[in-house]
Amino acid sequence: MSSSTNQTSSDSKKQSTDDIEKLLNREASAFQREVEVERILKAFKLNAYDILDLDVAATPEDIKKKYRQLSLFIHPDKAQHARAPEAFDILKKAESELSDKNKREELDAIMNQARIEILKSYNLPTNLAHNDPSLRDIVEPSFRVRVRARAKDILIEEEVRRRKAIRLNLANEGLEARKKDEEVASRKRKVEEDKQWEENREQRVDSWRSFASNKDGRKKKKSKVAILG
Predict the structure, then answer these.
(1) pTM, entire model
(2) How far apart are alpha carbons 72 and 95 in whole angstroms?
(3) How would DSSP label each residue in 148-200?
(4) Which CATH number goes with the domain that contains 54?
(5) Residue 45 · residue 51 · CB < 8 Å
(6) pLDDT digit string, tens, across residues 54-81
């Protein structure tokens, strides 16, 4: 009887321990989801590699795999973070950009430019492989961090130029639009003036006839006065 009681007590403790572990695991998982959502929200939005936390050397398969992993991990149905939907959309956009051949080539060109600049600053060959051991000597911050920081600066510069070009184009388009509006308004005024001119034609003719008639009457009166004199 005592042995049975002890066994029951032991099983109960084990179940309790398992429940606690499950609870802790769930809480840890929830916390990790929150952390990942925050990381994505804070990632540099112009660099899809930052958002997906991938290296430039990532293959298309690597990109798809990482996207699936993260999208499931921070999916709004699982993550309790209030901004999980926003992070999910950011993640989706990043994957889309890296899956687009042209967009990825543009980003890779900027990343490569940043990499070359950092390598030159350390007097290292610009054709070093991404896994070259000499890159490990660059610390605090690491070579990878330095490249991303420089790429961020370049991307910001490019974005500023792009936005200026858009504003300039919009300004030019606005100027052209105003010119067209003025031309249209001018044509409308001309049409309206012509219309009014036609509508007032009879009035002008009548006025002229009245004026001419009065003028002839005055001439006749003067002639009669001259004859009588």
Answers:
(1) 0.64
(2) 14
(3) HHHHHHHHHHHHHHHHHHHHHHHHHHHHHHHHHHHHHHHHHHHHHHHHHHHHT
(4) 1.10.287.110
(5) yes
(6) 999 999 999 999 999 999 999 999 898 9
